[in-house]
Amino acid sequence: MAFLQGLRTWGTFGRGWSRRVAEVRRDAIAMARSAPSVSTQAPLPPKPVLQTPAPVNLLDPERIWTAALAHGAPWDKDPAHCHLFYIEGCNLDGTPNDNAIDKWNDVRGILKFVEGKPQVVFACRATTEPGIFYDRIHVIGGPQGAALIWLGYQECWQVGIHHPGRAHEALVQTGGQCKVYRDFDKSFRRQDGHITTGDYGINQHSTGPGLESDPDSVGPWSAGCLVAEDYDDHVAWMKIVKSDNRYVADREHVFGTIVMPAAWVQQATGLPPTEPKPPAPSAPDKPAVIFPPRPAQPAPAARSWWQVLTDILVKWRSK
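^ that's the sequence the OP posted. Answer follows.
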């Protein structure tokens, strides 16, 4: 204020300058009081970075092999043997799905040993459950409900002819009895107390020559059988199945098959460790550059109302 009073024009503009200085002083004090205080507490440590587990490939042959053995499949490493499996809730790229009802959302596959290592030599879309048509509309099974195949390994299938629809070669249940759950309440759930065993015609077939399924619905193609969505895939599958030397030696050979939920494969343990990849060598003409640590920046000091007022006046004079 003393600076302004010393100006020759004070007599003319003094009242206005006095009012403006008083307003600036008032605003500066308010700003200084509302400024955040400088914390003396130590900074919080950074949050730990959660490592997301790598997704499991449900069609990894090592995992399928381990899961099948863990759940009773008497598989061996004979390269001439075909090990048949189904994985429920599995896509053809090995990712899991929601296993919704009335969908082609399971995988039919064959595992063989090639040069001492398990390999998935065949895979196609399939279903292990009946469609809505035979589970809730035209129920096959009477009051007990439609059949939901038991999860695990069973031996009861022989090469034969599947007759419903257009007859075609398939694995038919003529080699023994089959264990199933009965969907008594039409919920598509396997529930304890509703397991039956018998000759139910639980075949491993497809649509039939010249017939196509609905890609969005199982429809009437399964009443409890294990069904491949595409007939050409089924024909290719049968060709590999019949190459098994046990069938070549005995045309009455009874094939075994394991039906597994995706969780069994996801939880498979005892896998051989994976060797880590060595780090890529750095180019000799581009050595790694190590930057010194950045010095810590001091925290800003608290400012008085007078310092804030001075800054405002300097900016005001520069206009």
